[in-house]
Design goal:
Layout lengths: L1 H20 L3 E3 L12 E3 L10 E7 L2 E16 L4 E14 L5 E4 L14 E7 L4 E6 L9 E9 L2 E6 L24 E8 L1
Parallel strand pairs: 1-2, 2-5
Antiparallel strand pairs: 3-4, 3-11, 4-5, 5-6, 5-7, 7-8, 8-9, 9-10, 10-11
Keywords: Signal
InterPro entries: DUF6705
Protein name: DUF6705 domain-containing protein
């Protein structure tokens, strides 16, 4: 009988250890200081879903099309944190007034969240209907910054973006690369769902 009890105790310890080693699934906006290694920040309340779709706007004579999709369980890494998170990925096409494509990421397969031209969500503000996105910038990280999308209604979002890096040195960035920022800068730019 004692042998059976010991075996059951050992089995209980093994099962408890396996369960406790499994990464935690937490709500999307959990503070990073409150997560453990490889936690999963999941969109449990479907805060990201309303933004999914194709949106268009005309700004300063350019037609901007946003292609917003959701990517579940995306690996995120920084010097301090390593975790998984559900995120929005924003691909875009920008055409001038005669239809010439100035910049497009519509068909880009982004490998990780540090890729050039990537726009991805980093948090939401549910009580304000806002999703906060990080833009990595174009060549040499020019144009990197934060983008705020606000859900106005079922078919319209408002865009707010100002570039943090607008210039760079020739030491950091070769002179022959495109250094233009094509994304529209400003506040309250309205995009309509197509």
């Amino acid at each position: 009988m004692k042998k059976i009890n010991n075996q059951l105790t050992l089995l209980f310890i093994v099962i408890t250890t396996i369960i406790s080693c499994k990464a935690q699934t937490l709500p999307l906006n959990t503070a990073l200081d409150n997560i453990t290694l490889n936690s999963y920040l999941k969109d449990l309340d479907n805060e990201l879903t309303p933004y999914i779709g194709t949106y268009q706007s005309n700004v300063n004579g350019n037609q901007i099309t946003l292609f917003i999709s959701k990517q579940d369980h995306t690996y995120m890494s920084s010097s301090k944190y390593k975790y998984y998170q559900d995120i929005l990925i924003v691909r875009y096409t920008i055409k001038n007034s005669v239809g010439v494509t100035l910049q497009s990421t519509q068909n880009v397969n982004f490998i990780n969240t540090t890729d050039k031209n990537l726009i991805h969500s980093i948090s939401t503000r549910p009580n304000q209907n806002i999703v906060v996105l990080d833009y990595n910038g174009t060549n040499c990280e020019i144009g990197n910054g934060t983008i705020y999308l606000k859900m106005l209604n079922a078919t319209q979002i408002s865009w707010r973006y100002y570039a943090e890096t607008v210039a760079t040195s020739h030491d950091r960035c070769p002179p022959n690369v495109d250094k233009n920022i094509y994304l529209p800068e400003g506040e309250n730019l309205i995009f309509t769902k197509q």
